[in-house]
Structure to design on (400 residues):
């Protein structure tokens, strides 16, 4: 996701500096060229050798280090950077950045950078809430910095409240959102659906399917990373809600129908990746259905009724210029069945895949899609779902 990107990771003097090692590792594994710049106080918590081992690059601490090759290092680092993230960012470092003070290597590099910048404040609650710190944060936001809100909880100083640095996973997601892709979808409104639906049988039981929601969530995150304003309508899943996305939680097919059809008219692109139930119980029992004591109900028949077809409704009511993409999960005649859906439901594109194919479909980390339009078929490679999401969006952007 970050191959070819140069990330400067600033680390300041805070106990949370140990979390930055996990972030440096994650960014490096994602393909980024990570350069860590530490304040001298930060080295009291984590040694530079740790970051050097994780990133493969020498850590910068001293502005006047004589061991570097002959070039102005803080300028060369700043020129190469695609993004700067300071994590943890102490109250002192935020004050320096807000007022242009450059008295150490990190503050000098930051002042020389003209790339996007973000900071993750980490400090005592009273220091964070102090009006001076809040003013400095406001100044940085006005200068275009993205300030990641600290988490709340028990701090190393023993107090409780806001001031904890967000977990490395949250910081990683923020970097990916900011730097992974050019913002070629800026200004577009995108609606994505994901996950299964649950159709109640009684207060205890329900009918559902094996969808994990991973593909839909990957598409939503990729669209957001490309600058789109994304709404994700999600069935019940065990996935963490992504940042930078408006998540609408639903349970049943009826709830998903209402959530999607009420929002779709305002969207430029709609991608229906959810596995919505085609049928639901015709009658939902008020109490748990019990087995008859004499076994007379051994062959009880469950009466089902059709749910509303969301894709068909979108196809009927679509506005001019709107791009509709559906998903088709099949067990046989994948392309033929999917192409029929494309025309029947008035779609621009349908993404077909087979549950029979190893490494594709429900529960797998990878997927294989064949994109079908009115006049062509595009076979996408079997890759990680996050990578596949970007490839799908590439094809949609070519055609809208």
């Amino acid at each position: 996701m970050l191959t070819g990107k140069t990330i400067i990771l600033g680390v300041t003097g805070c106990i949370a500096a140990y979390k930055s090692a996990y972030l440096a590792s994650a960014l490096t594994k994602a393909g980024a060229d990570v350069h860590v710049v530490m304040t001298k106080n930060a080295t009291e918590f984590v040694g530079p050798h740790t970051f050097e081992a994780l990133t493969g690059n020498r850590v910068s601490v001293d502005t006047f280090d004589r061991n570097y090759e002959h070039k102005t290092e803080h300028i060369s680092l700043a020129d190469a950077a695609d993004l700067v993230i300071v994590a943890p960012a102490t109250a002192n470092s935020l004050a320096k950045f807000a007022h242009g003070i450059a008295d150490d290597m990190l503050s000098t590099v930051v002042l020389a950078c003209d790339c996007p910048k973000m900071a993750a404040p980490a400090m005592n609650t009273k220091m964070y809430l102090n009006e001076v710190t809040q003013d400095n944060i406001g100044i940085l936001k006005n200068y275009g910095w993205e300030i990641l809100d600290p988490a709340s909880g028990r701090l190393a100083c023993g107090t409780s409240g806001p001031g904890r640095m967000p977990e490395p996973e949250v910081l990683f997601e923020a970097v990916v959102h900011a730097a992974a892709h050019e913002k070629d979808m800026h200004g577009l409104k995108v609606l994505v659906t994901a996950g299964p639906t649950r159709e109640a049988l009684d207060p205890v039981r329900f009918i559902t399917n094996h969808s994990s929601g991973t593909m839909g969530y990957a598409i939503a995150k990729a669209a957001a990373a490309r600058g789109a304003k994304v709404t994700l309508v999600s069935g019940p899943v065990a996935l963490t809600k992504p940042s930078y996305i408006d998540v609408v939680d639903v349970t049943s097919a009826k709830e998903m129908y209402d959530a999607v059809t009420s929002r779709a008219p305002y969207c430029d692109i709609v991608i229906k990746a959810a596995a919505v139930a085609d049928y639901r119980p015709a009658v939902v029992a008020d109490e748990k259905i019990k087995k008859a004591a004499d076994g007379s109900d051994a062959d009880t028949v469950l009466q089902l009724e059709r749910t509303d077809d969301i894709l068909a409704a979108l196809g009927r009511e679509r506005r001019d210029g709107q791009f509709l993409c559906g998903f088709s999960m099949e067990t046989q005649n994948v392309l033929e069945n999917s192409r029929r859906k494309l025309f029947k439901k008035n779609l621009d594109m349908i993404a077909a895949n087979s549950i029979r194919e190893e490494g594709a479909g429900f529960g797998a980390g990878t997927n294989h899609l064949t994109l079908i339009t009115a006049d062509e078929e595009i076979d996408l490679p079997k890759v990680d779902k996050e990578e596949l999401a970007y490839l799908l969006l590439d094809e949609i952007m070519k055609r809208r």
User: Anything to note?
Assistant: The chain has two domains: 6-179, 189-399.
